[in-house]
Design brief:
With about 280 residues, this protein is α/β, with parallel strands linked by helices. The chain contains 8 helices and 13 strands. About 5% of the residues have low confidence.
């Protein structure tokens, strides 16, 4: 039996570092650029491998194109390529990620001509934990299928109590920016859909989890942000890992916050991201 199955976006990222955000109608010379494999499902699966978990990974198909080779090369290095299809009829999803000196990123996703391969029912049934983020193709369908199979379902970036993802989730991981203008109240509403603990990130402000009517919080350490790309995926990976280890909710919150913070402050090298050690 596999421990964890990750499903969602799998893409090639082209990071472009800018000295400033360009004014409308003007141009700007980039400082540098780098290709790497990304997407919410791949970012989460990669982090889990750092901590000793070997997850199943499903999501976007890879085209027979240079972007697909960027992703395929890293999947082979991580031993995560078995469930990812190469298909000459489709295009590999590509995200152009524009990064400014404050570490903030703007993502331009190219998805024309892309396709995905959801996990078959037997793969979902074989996993103890199924982690899905809202971004990507068929993510709601996969989360609901896992719910019907009574898997433990972790869902990222849920927005409202009425959407199907909220009704599929045993654990919710989302962000204050998505739940504005009253994120604590909206997170509480998400919790009461079916009692799922709700993890809430909020940049440099305290990260929180709401469980059984109680809020717990952890203040991220003071940091100089170099690149916020993928930090939310690393946080969700930390939550998934803590659930897999059987930790209590405050311990999971502390680990996920530390893992995401280290990602924020460490510039990625081409083709890989920095491994963050598990405390145990």
């Amino acid at each position: 039996m596999a421990d964890v199955l990750c499903y969602g976006s799998i893409c090639a990222d082209l990071r472009i570092w800018l000295p400033r955000w360009p004014m409308p109608g003007s141009g700007v010379h980039a400082l540098r650029s780098a290709w790497s494999a990304g997407g919410n499902a791949l970012n989460e699966a990669r982090a889990l491998t750092w901590w000793g978990v070997q997850p199943l990974l499903y999501g976007d198909r890879l085209g027979d194109d240079p972007a697909g080779e960027v992703v395929a090369t890293e999947l082979r290095a991580l031993n995560l390529a078995a469930n990812i299809e190469r298909d000459a009829r489709v295009a590999t999803p590509v995200c152009h990620i524009l990064i400014t000196p404050d570490g903030e990123r703007t993502i331009i996703a190219l998805r024309e001509g892309t396709a995905a391969s959801p996990p078959p029912p037997e793969a979902l049934a074989a996993a103890q934990i199924v982690s899905v983020s809202r971004y990507g193709l068929y993510t709601t369908e996969v989360a609901l299928a896992a719910r019907r199979l009574d898997r433990l379902v972790i869902v990222g970036d849920v927005l409202t109590p009425t959407e199907p993802l909220a009704h599929a989730a045993d654990v919710i991981v989302t962000s204050a920016s998505l739940l504005d203008p009253d994120p604590l109240a909206r997170a509480t509403d998400l919790h009461y859909v079916r009692g799922a603990p709700v993890f809430l990130t909020d940049g440099p402000r305290p990260a929180r989890v709401f469980v059984a009517g109680v809020w717990y919080e952890v203040l991220p350490p003071v940091q100089t942000v170099t690149d916020s790309t993928g930090a939310g995926d690393i946080f969700r990976a930390g939550v998934t890992y803590g659930v897999w280890r059987g930790w209590d909710w405050p311990a999971i919150l502390a680990f996920a916050t530390r893992a995401a913070t280290e990602q924020l402050t460490t510039p990625p090298t081409e083709g890989s991201l920095r491994a963050i050690r598990s405390p145990v």
